[in-house]
């Protein structure tokens, strides 16, 4: 029924979040800055005019390589989130 499906999906996301956390912990604890630069990318929003109505609120994602300084800031799981990794 619907409640079982909701519970299943909720638990599935819990597993995905836990795996992401463990992967992030492994990366920040075991890789040096140069390895992080190779393994990770930074995702940023780029705001452009919407071609349909000219509104400036249209955003797209831009994926960028990390600089050495950015990679050195990645020292905890929270730093991955704070730096848009």
UniProtKB/TrEMBL annotation:
Q: What species is given as this protein's source?
A: Streptococcus pneumoniae
Protein's name according to its UniProt entry: Peptidase M26 C-terminal domain-containing protein
- Domain Peptidase M26 C-terminal as annotated: residue spans: 2-85
GO CC, sorted alphabetically, is: extracellular region
Residues making up the signal peptide according to the UniProt record: none
Do you know which Pfam families this protein is assigned to?
Answer: Peptidase_M26_C
Recall the GO molecular function terms of this protein's record. metalloendopeptidase activity; zinc ion binding
């Amino acid at each position: 029924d619907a409640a079982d499906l909701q519970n299943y999906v909720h638990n599935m996301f819990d597993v995905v979040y836990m795996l992401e956390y463990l992967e992030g912990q492994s990366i920040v604890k075991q890789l040096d800055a140069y390895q992080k630069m190779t393994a990770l990318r930074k995702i940023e929003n780029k705001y452009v005019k919407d071609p349909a109505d000219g509104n400036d609120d249209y955003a797209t994602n831009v994926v960028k390589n990390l600089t050495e300084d950015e990679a050195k800031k990645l020292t905890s799981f929270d730093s991955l989130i704070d730096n848009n990794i």
